[in-house]
Amino acid sequence: MAGRPRDPDLEQRLLATAWSLLTSNGYDALTLTQVAAQAGAHRTDVYRRWRSKVRLVADVLDTYLPPVPDPDTGTLHGDLRAFAQDLAGAWNEPWNDGLVGFLADLRGDGEAGRTFRALVSRRSQPLVDAIARAVRRGEIAEVPELPFVGNLLEGPLMHRRMFGGGPLTPEELDVVTWSVHRLLTGTSVKP
Amino acid sequence: MAGRPRDPDLEQRLLATAWSLLTSNGYDALTLTQVAAQAGAHRTDVYRRWRSKVRLVADVLDTYLPPVPDPDTGTLHGDLRAFAQDLAGAWNEPWNDGLVGFLADLRGDGEAGRTFRALVSRRSQPLVDAIARAVRRGEIAEVPELPFVGNLLEGPLMHRRMFGGGPLTPEELDVVTWSVHRLLTGTSVKP
DNA sequence: CCAATTCGCAACAAGTTGTAGCGATACCGT
DNA sequence: ACGGTATCGCTACAACTTGTTGCGAATTGG
C-alpha cells in the first residue's frame, strides 16, 4: 500500500536550485531542464512535483523570498522610509525586474495566482502593522484606504524600475515616502 | 540600383494585424506566425522588416497606442484626476496587463528599449504640461521631483492591477490623485 | 513475497523564435 | 530593351521551450 518513498531531499534541492538560478538569471532565462540538471535530477522529477514552471516558481518564492523586516523605528515616517529602502533594495536587484515574466505567466494559472497573492498579502502585513502603530500612537487617524497603501508605496518604485533608466535613488525613496506619509497624515482624503 | 519595391501596404497590414492581435490576446499569446497569416503574408516578411517580436511590438505601440489626452480642466487636481482616469482605463483593459511580458523581453533588446522609453517619455508630456500650468497659475511651487511624478501617478495603479484582484475602482483613483496632489501642493518635500 | 510508487532514463508531441535558400517578380538606370 | 538588384512567396531547417508518455529498476509497506 506504499511504494518507494519520495526522496525528501530532492524537492528541497530542486527548490534551492530554482531559487539560485532565478536570482542569478531571472525568470525568463530559467528553464526546467537547467533546474533539473543542476539539482542532479531529471526534468520528469520536476514535473512529478509541480504541474508547471510557474507553479514551481510560485513555491520557490514562497519558500525563499526573504521576509519583510518590521522596522518599528518609532515614527510613521521612519517606518515608511525603511519599507521604501527595503523595496528599493529588492527592485534594484536585476533578477527581480525579470519577475514581470512570472507575473505574466501567473495570469494563466489560477492556483499559482492564489498562492502568489497570498504571499503578497502576507508580506504587506508589516506595513499594515506599522500603520496600526501610528494610529495607536495618535500620530494619524484611521486609514480607510489601508489596502491600497502598499500599492502606493511599492507601485512608483516598481514602475520607475520598469520604465526608467538605472537603479532607484535615495531621492526617489524620499519622494515616495513623503508622498505616502502626507496622504496618511492628512486630516481626510478629501479636503 | 533598385530592385523590386517593398509593398508599402504590407508593413501597414502587419502593424495593424499585430495591434489587433495584441489588443485581443495579449503579448504572450501573440505569435509572428499568427500575425503573418492574418495579414496574408509569411513569417519571413515579418523578419525582413523587424529583427524580432519585441521590436515589432515596440513599433506597433509607437504607431497605434492612442495619445494621452491633455485635459486642462483649470485646476491641478482636475487634471491629475483626469490622467488617473485615463491610465485606469488603459490598465483595466485585460490585454494591457499582458504587456508585462513585453516589458520582460524589452530588457534583452537595447534598441527596442530605447524606442519604448522614448514613447513613454513622449506620453508623459501632457502631465508635465499640466504641472507647468499649475506653476504658472501660482497653484503650486516649482516641482523638483518632476521626472518622478509620472511614476508616482501610474505606479500604484499598475502595481495594484498586477498584484491585486479586479479592475481599478474610482476610490483608488481618488486616493492616488490626492496622494500626488498633496505632494505637489506641499510647501516642500521635506518639512 | 507482492503490490505500489518513485526513480532514472529515453523518446516524443507541439509549439516558439529566428535563419537559410531559391525561383519568380518587379523596378531602376543605362 | 536589358542587366542588376531587391523583394516576394514559399519551403525547410535549427535550436530551443514546456509538458507528456512509457518502461525497466529500485525501494518500501503489508
TrEMBL record, chains A, B:
InterPro entries: DNA-bd_HTH_TetR-type_CS, Homeodomain-like_sf, HTH-type_TetR-like_transc_reg, HTH_TetR, Tet_transcr_reg_TetR-rel_C_sf, TetR_C
Presence of keyword Secreted: no
Pfam families xref list: TetR_C_11, TetR_N
UniProt keyword terms in alphabetical order: DNA-binding, Transcription, Transcription regulation
PROSITE patterns, sorted: HTH_TETR_1 (PS01081), HTH_TETR_2 (PS50977)
Presence of keyword Transport: no
DNA-binding region, residue range(s): 31-50
Protein origin, superkingdom: Bacteria
Segments forming domain HTH tetR-type: 8-68
Name of the protein this chain belongs to: HTH tetR-type domain-containing protein
Organism: Lentzea cavernae
Organism lineage: Bacteria, Bacillati, Actinomycetota, Actinomycetes, Pseudonocardiales
